Amino acid sequence: xxxxxxxxxxxxxxxxxxxxxxxxxxxxxxEQLERCGVAIDTIVKAVRDFTVAVPxxxxxxxxxxxxxxxxxxxxxxxxxxxxxxxxxxxxxxxTPSVSLHIPxxxxxxxxxxxxxxxxxxxxxxxxxxxxxxxPDDPKQPLSYKFGSxxxxxxxxxxxxxxxxxxxxxxxxxxxxxxxxxxxGDGSNFPGQVDLLRSFERYLESAKxxxxxxxxxxxxxxxxxxxxxxxxxxxxxxxGTNLLIAQELGPKAYCLVDxxxxxxxxxxxxxxxxxxxxxxxxxxxxxxxxYGDDDLDxxxxxxxxxxxxxxxxxxxxxALERLDPAHMIDQSxxxxxxxxxxxxxxxxIRRAYAQALLVDRVALREYQDANDPMMASECLKxxxxxxxxxxxxxxxxxxxxxxxxxxxxxxxGYRKKVAIERPEVKGGGGGIV
Amino acid sequence: xxxxxxxxxxxxxxxxxxxxxxxxxxxxxxEQLERCGVAIDTIVKAVRDFTVAVPxxxxxxxxxxxxxxxxxxxxxxxxxxxxxxxxxxxxxxxTPSVSLHIPxxxxxxxxxxxxxxxxxxxxxxxxxxxxxxxPDDPKQPLSYKFGSxxxxxxxxxxxxxxxxxxxxxxxxxxxxxxxxxxxGDGSNFPGQVDLLRSFERYLESAKxxxxxxxxxxxxxxxxxxxxxxxxxxxxxxxGTNLLIAQELGPKAYCLVDxxxxxxxxxxxxxxxxxxxxxxxxxxxxxxxxYGDDDLDxxxxxxxxxxxxxxxxxxxxxALERLDPAHMIDQSxxxxxxxxxxxxxxxxIRRAYAQALLVDRVALREYQDANDPMMASECLKxxxxxxxxxxxxxxxxxxxxxxxxxxxxxxxGYRKKVAIERPEVKGGGGGIV
Amino acid sequence: xxxxxxxxxxxxxxxxxxxxxxxxxxxxxxEQLERCGVAIDTIVKAVRDFTVAVPxxxxxxxxxxxxxxxxxxxxxxxxxxxxxxxxxxxxxxxTPSVSLHIPxxxxxxxxxxxxxxxxxxxxxxxxxxxxxxxPDDPKQPLSYKFGSxxxxxxxxxxxxxxxxxxxxxxxxxxxxxxxxxxxGDGSNFPGQVDLLRSFERYLESAKxxxxxxxxxxxxxxxxxxxxxxxxxxxxxxxGTNLLIAQELGPKAYCLVDxxxxxxxxxxxxxxxxxxxxxxxxxxxxxxxxYGDDDLDxxxxxxxxxxxxxxxxxxxxxALERLDPAHMIDQSxxxxxxxxxxxxxxxxIRRAYAQALLVDRVALREYQDANDPMMASECLKxxxxxxxxxxxxxxxxxxxxxxxxxxxxxxxGYRKKVAIERPEVKGGGGGIV
Amino acid sequence: xxxxxxxxxxxxxxxxxxxxxxxxxxxxxxEQLERCGVAIDTIVKAVRDFTVAVPxxxxxxxxxxxxxxxxxxxxxxxxxxxxxxxxxxxxxxxTPSVSLHIPxxxxxxxxxxxxxxxxxxxxxxxxxxxxxxxPDDPKQPLSYKFGSxxxxxxxxxxxxxxxxxxxxxxxxxxxxxxxxxxxGDGSNFPGQVDLLRSFERYLESAKxxxxxxxxxxxxxxxxxxxxxxxxxxxxxxxGTNLLIAQELGPKAYCLVDxxxxxxxxxxxxxxxxxxxxxxxxxxxxxxxxYGDDDLDxxxxxxxxxxxxxxxxxxxxxALERLDPAHMIDQSxxxxxxxxxxxxxxxxIRRAYAQALLVDRVALREYQDANDPMMASECLKxxxxxxxxxxxxxxxxxxxxxxxxxxxxxxxGYRKKVAIERPEVKGGGGGIV
Lengths: 432, 432, 432, 432
Fold this sequence. Notes:
Oligomer: homotetramer
GO molecular function (chains A, B, C, D): isomerase activity; metal ion binding
Helix content of chain A: 40-55%
CATH architecture of chain A: Alpha-Beta Barrel
Keywords (chains A, B, C, D): Isomerase, Manganese, Metal-binding
Radius of gyration of chain A: 22 Å
Largest sheet of chain A: 6 strands, parallel
Number of strands of chain A: 11
Largest interface: A-D, 59 and 59 residues
CATH topology of chain A: TIM Barrel
Organism (chains A, B, C, D): Fulvimarina pelagi HTCC2506
CATH superfamily of chain A: Divalent-metal-dependent TIM barrel enzymes
Protein name (chains A, B, C, D): Putative sugar isomerase protein
Distance between the termini of chain A: 33 Å
Structural class of chain A: alpha/beta
Low-confidence stretches of chain A: 426-432
């Protein structure tokens, strides 16, 4: 028996209000696509099949080194986080799985599984944490101030490896089949670490984790140009990430977080190169204007998001073999996190649907004929298509809301949990 | 009577060990400079006269949104912070003043002045804070989550203005004559704020603060491209900063924080333009590789620091009229903050001394003759000069240490305060 | 009597093929907008009234310092350039004016005016050129290698000023009322020029030009971060540009070229600030991914272009008083320049139409209520609207083509001029 | 018998003037280093052994897409270019080899070898060119406008491969043992090329070149983020470059051009990673502030150059096995190219000498003890050392000039060739 957090009648009632407009838009778009030889139902079906995981930490309000401004009803533990995740999926129908972060989300695995099942949720990739100290945890007596998997001291490295093995063990108990390893190791000053030796130490540690992976598991390593380390990071870009995946072996893949690159970098080309190398493991979706801003996916440069999906569709079978993981990884500093996650999942499906609309036969002809004008317009035409009604159709067919944010607001969920969950005071920088 | 934190015999003893090498280096440099027509004593004198303020918050360990790793002996209040600042000045002899941050440093003004006097310290520009909430402060009942001086709600703006007036009042009581206003206002999404209206609200608030400035005070506004706001900030660059200073009036000046610019920006040219506009108010010194990294001044790109000082020297009398304020503003995440501040003050004096060595008559001739090769070499030659012994000489003459970091380590100060000041647990992101 | 380059029957015939689809799309969009309380005809009318100038140099193939690859039928002089511009306007109906570049476009003014009239074209802002040498021009005996308006040598500065006065005189003869001054002055090495003195020289020269402006003329100065100078440029950003416009007087305004900024810079905020300062003079439209790439407007980041227009619409009456100039300024290296200009003018109108669709009453409410989610979605909803049929409607009503690029290809114009205009051999870098 | 371009008496005479100062500086530095346990003669010897190649195209004045401003006495062919290269080496004694660019430098190989021998020069890596069209060359009938090695058309790819094979053959005839392949392939618009397929075509072509490499040859591929292609380049970063070297085989290595990276990228870490992967092939040295500015090496960020050499020294034996190639690759737009190349070679040796001065035993201890302050200072101390007199000593011992630029100016070489080589008129963008 399930225990969905939003009363279905709220969704029905909100949908009813919007159905006339929605039906008209969907019909008009269907006709327009038909004139281009595209059956709208095919797109709807593909969209329904496309899902993305939400991070457990994403339902809490994030912050910066300067401050964190929590909102009402912040979840106080993994069980409440799962409730919030269930709201997102109930309304949006595209986020059936949750990615956990240990140590924060550690609890009794059986209870976790029961809770998830009751909410129709499952668990995606596990995330370990060795970029913070937890002085009260008896398993973490040593500090990560100067690194973890690449630390100069073998004892710290061992502690960090052990933590990852624990996370894998926990993940097995709840049905996860992957671990994402992102670490804060690096340096703030030229000379602080030996760039070569610290990388060798990292590899040695990563190999110890890799060696303990269950048969059906994958390990995702994640590159990040800077922050929290400000002169060098141990996995600074996809080149190093690729080297790592090559050194580790066939179960190791590279994770691409959209916000972790140098200014101006062509991210969709990195995606293409990782597909070529058969090492694309998946994505952490978000958007950014300056650095690793961790803003809502698609909110700053929606065309860039579309171009990433264009590469994925273009790759065709090669991608299917890779089966990349999709996860949102954002920091919600000024919005209701539930709303941001609903919206972002929608933007991801939007980019996916638009990429499906690209006329690939025509595109290839333009490319082979050196016709950059028409090739460019071929992509732009797909991007310009307003697929909002396709996304809504996919949600409706799965029991979700036409306008999930409106339905969420109508439900009064936030007000309810604001009462049930006493306010959390102050707090410094958020964890994202 | 003063109460210096380091036993003078420690300095004397450390200096004694190093004096032979130092004397030889100083003599050799003196001869080399003499061959170029420069009297080394002139440079030493100028260096002795050049000072820079340290920020009270700089003596605590900083952090990022991911974590903060405090070190032993963290100061627990403004009085202990002043002790640490006194160590820096006693050894380095270039940082006689401290810049306070309210609310953290608020205490009885008379006690503060006494303490400072006993340590031979004075107070530089005051810093207000409206980028964090202080829910326990009865004067701050309203949240700054969505802005302060530019907030949509007039009541929040008024609260923020009042806070600044309080800071000025407090500053007057301890002998400060300037206030630096940096705020976190801005937006994370296109559309979140109206760029024009929010700027007008900011100006209205800033004018209210300006109107309350004592006769002999200056107000410094500070631009910052991003963080904590990630789509727009209210004072995003020097252009907006200039507009503000123009709107406010003759006591308003622009502060340049070296880390607050877009990638690749020519900062020394901004300095030159602000001198032209007679609105250069001063500096927040630090260094950075990626964003607003707040690393130790001169640690990443020492030539850039030199070029900033080259503009200051070049400006000559025009600069004297402006009398810009110099302050270090860094985040010390992995070093002992006292050591970083000693070193950074030294790097600032180094750049200043090197800039003094530029042969300005020759430079002007090269410039007017369109000889970029020799003009470029003219600067490089000054920059290449190892002025370490000049800096040491200036310190010695004022009672400081030849090698202040070595003397600091020899003094055992950190070990001592680590015992006196019980460890502060955990903590999230640091405040910088 | 006019002499339009494309046979109207080509347009009619191409339109006929597309009219069914277009009518269906336009009707569906009209209904959708009506549900939101927007009358589609109002938008169509506004779009018809919105025009943008094309640059005479834009109809030739551009290049880079590495190579230029001309295409067939390159125009060999201003008269042929005007023919090409007429094609763009005949099909797209949004580019009735041409911006000239002197010395290249200098010819008999009366003949120029006649030619333009016969093509239903007029002349926009004039562009002077002091970033290249023209050794065969008796009026340009001195080299601009080391600068023009800011050159160390007064004789060079005078030559550059005289050139600008000539351009104004020529512009008066053909009905222009503005001059755009962009120069390549700057330096490649720290020290090469004195940043302050060279700026003062620039201002002196600019004042001499300003003093010669006819009563009804405006002068636009243009900032650019780098290239061709690689260490400093004389007008490096909007802050310096603002200083210049303030120094010169009420007829001086700042021109914003979208490609001339540092990485990550928020351009729409600069637009907003220049509106506040009443100094926004206009735009050079283009798009870019890395530096001043001069790619087709809207081809890389269409949302950014939309956000610029969002600021313009938001400014309302304040903008009307400024009456900013709109010009495309791009380098067409791999496309047929005519096609790129048709497409780009269309993208500009698209962004304008989308910005008109923003529900400004709702937006203001969201802003004042600190509801970043809905404010952000309010803009995104307008941006997502596929206004293609609105743009087509505006063209049709003015006699243009539903799909102007298709009609252009159907017309065979490029093949025709390829025969009439013998191929230009080789050539080094292009001028943009 | 050799035929050196500068009369040795000029060097002797200039050296004589400077010898007193030089001797004093060298002696003082020797004493200072001795106090640190370093024998200055060891450093001098190492510096004498360190050489760097100059590019044949570097002795001509470069330019931008906007203009090129040639200077007096521009070399009109490869023989005159060799004369200029000989001047650089005669004075600076660090540039005994020249890197040629085909087709420009193609001539009778035997004559070339004779000429080089008479000037005591040899030949470094060859450079092919498929980023420009040469319509008059019967071997290049097809255009590279839309690519070369990755072109959609197999015939163009074959032409480009054939050109590279020709270059190798020519290189063999003159004693070269390496080819550097940099191409301009890429795209200006999303969609223009299929990122995956075009890379596969590139690899196929590269393999054809690789297959034809003589036994003792190496192939260097070079990455570049952008320009002349502005949306994607085929070898955009070191990650792709690494993939290529891995796909090609053991004779394939990655070349690092310091100017070809995204803003803020940590280049020294890329060097470290390529050493780890055993694929570092060598360097193209230059400096930059904004994009691929191609400014004089060390003129903008000398500390960054030092940090690159620090990695090379740190790598020790691993580097010796790689034996990386060193070449200057700059564009001299406003300086006398001979002077810029002399200065740049000097800056490279300076960074090398400074890197040799790092106390590596101490550094390792600081790193292992997590002492970032002292580790950072350890590097800075080496960097601060003014090794000018070491560089002069190395030159003197090999017959060069104490101040090679001064000696060059004293020689009157430029004036002489300005008469012998009639001025080249105009010219568009330069080739760099």
